[in-house]
Write a structure and sequence with these properties.
elongated; Alpha-Beta Plaits; 55% helix; alpha+beta; 5-stranded antiparallel β-sheet; SH3 type barrels; 366 residues
C-alpha cells in the first residue's frame, strides 16, 4: 500500500513538472511586450502557478487516499479521509480563485490599451476601479463557496441572509457608501482628472489616483495626501490644471523724487518690454498703470496673462522680464523705492520742530 502511494506521488511530480515545462516553453515563444501579448499569453501567465497548486493538492490527496481510508473513527466513520477530502476541495477552490484573480490582468491590460487610445483621462481613473471591482467580486464569491464547503450551507439561503442583514450593514458602512457615491460623482461630473493639479482644503498637489474610497494627491512638497471622496465632492475645489492662463500681478515702486516725465518714461519702458511678449494672448494684452501714491513710493501696477499656463515656463519668463526692467531703469537713472522713514528730533538745532495749534497759531520750539 505504501509503495502504491509513493508511486502515485512520483506520478504527481512528473505530471506537474511536465505541464509546467510545456506552459513555460509556450510562454517563451510569445513576445513579452505587454502591448503585443495575445490572449494565449495572458492565459498561460494566469494559469501556470494555480495549475501547479491544483495538481499538488489533488495529486497528494489521491496518492494518500489508499492510506487514509484505513483510518476510521470508533463509530466506523472515515473521519480522516473526510477531512482530507474537505481540505482538498478548499484547496481546489483557492487555486481556481487564484487563477481567476490573475486572469483579471487580461481585462486590466486590454482596458488600459483602450484608455490610452482615448483623449479623455477619465478612462485612466475608471480602469483601476474596474480591476479592483472584479478582484473584490472574485474574493467574495470564492469566500462564499469556501464557507459553503465548510458548513454545508447552500448559497441561496446564504445570499438571502445577506439581504436580511443588508440594512445593518448599510448603517455600519455609511461612510464607505458615501465615499463610493463620491467616487461615482468624480467619475461622471469630472471636476478633475488624474495628472491635474488641484487645491482642496489647503492641499495643493497633483492627482495621482482615484479609488473607491479616496483620492490620492501628491503635494508639491512630495507628500502623499489621501482625502475621502465624500469630502472631495463636498469641498470647494480649485482646479489649477485647467486654468487658461497664469496671471502675474506685481507692483513696481519708484522713489518720490522721480519727476512726472520720468514716471511716464518708466511706464513706457515696461509697456515696450511687455509688448508682444512671450506667452502673450492678443485677447489678454498686458496692463501697465501708474496707479497709486504709496507711503514711501510711487506705484506702477503691472498685470500680465501668460499663455499657456505652464508654471515653470512662466517663472523663467518673469525672471528675464524683471532683469530687463532693471537694466532699462538703470539706463534712464530711474531709482527703485524701498520702505524708508525720516525721523526729526525735537532738540535738533539744524531742524527746528514747529507745532501748530488748533487755532492756527504757530509755535516754534527750540
Amino acid at each position: 500500500m505504501l509503495g502504491v502511494c509513493l508511486f502515485l506521488l512520483f506520478l504527481v511530480v512528473i505530471v506537474e513538472r511536465l505541464l509546467k515545462s510545456i506552459i513555460q516553453k509556450k510562454e517563451r515563444s510569445i513576445p513579452a511586450d505587454e502591448e503585443k501579448m495575445s490572449w494565449t499569453k495572458f492565459l498561460l501567465l494566469a494559469i501556470e502557478k494555480p495549475l501547479s497548486l491544483l495538481i499538488w493538492i489533488y495529486g497528494i490527496y489521491i496518492a494518500l487516499s489508499p492510506l487514509l481510508i484505513h483510518f476510521k473513527a470508533p463509530d466506523d466513520t472515515n473521519l480522516v479521509h473526510s477531512i482530507a477530502q474537505r481540505i482538498a476541495g478548499i484547496g481546489g477552490i483557492l487555486a481556481i480563485v487564484w487563477f481567476t484573480f490573475r486572469l483579471v490582468q487580461i481585462v486590466d491590460v486590454k482596458l488600459k490599451k483602450w484608455a490610452i487610445s482615448t483623449e479623455s483621462t477619465i478612462d485612466d481613473m475608471l480602469v483601476p476601479l474596474v480591476g479592483k471591482t472584479l478582484r473584490i467580486f472574485i474574493i467574495i464569491i470564492g469566500g462564499m463557496i469556501i464557507i459553503q464547503n465548510l458548513t454545508g450551507l447552500q448559497l441561496g439561503p446564504l445570499i438571502a441572509s445577506l439581504g436580511i442583514g443588508g440594512l445593518a450593514v448599510a448603517l455600519a458602512a455609511k461612510e464607505s457608501i458615501a465615499n463610493f457615491f463620491g467616487t461615482l460623482t468624480i467619475l461622471f461630473d469630472k471636476p478633475f482628472q488624474v495628472g491635474e493639479r488641484i487645491v482642496i482644503d489647503n492641499c495643493d498637489g497633483v492627482v495621482e489616483s482615484v479609488g473607491f474610497r479616496s483620492t490620492r494627491i501628491r503635494t508639491l512638497t512630495g507628500h502623499l495626501v489621501t482625502i475621502p471622496n465624500e469630502k472631495v465632492v463636498n469641498s470647494a475645489l480649485e482646479n489649477i490644471g485647467r486654468r487658461p492662463y497664469i496671471r502675474w500681478l506685481t507692483n513696481i515702486t519708484i522713489t518720490y523724487d522721480t519727476p512726472p516725465d520720468k514716471v511716464e518714461k518708466a511706464v513706457k519702458i515696461i509697456e515696450n518690454i511687455l509688448d508682444n511678449h512671450e506667452g502673450m494672448n492678443k485677447d489678454f494684452p498686458p496692463r501697465v498703470y501708474f496707479n497709486n501714491f504709496n507711503d514711501c513710493s510711487l506705484n506702477i501696477m503691472v498685470i500680465v496673462w501668460y499663455h499657456p499656463p505652464d508654471y515653470w515656463d512662466c517663472q523663467s519668463w518673469i525672471q528675464k522680464t524683471c532683469l530687463e526692467i532693471m537694466r532699462e531703469f538703470e539706463k534712464e537713472e530711474i531709482e527703485f523705492a524701498f520702505p524708508t522713514q525720516t525721523v526729526y528730533l525735537a532738540n535738533d538745532e539744524k531742524r527746528q520742530l514747529k507745532l501748530q495749534l488748533l487755532s492756527g497759531e504757530n509755535i516754534q520750539k527750540k
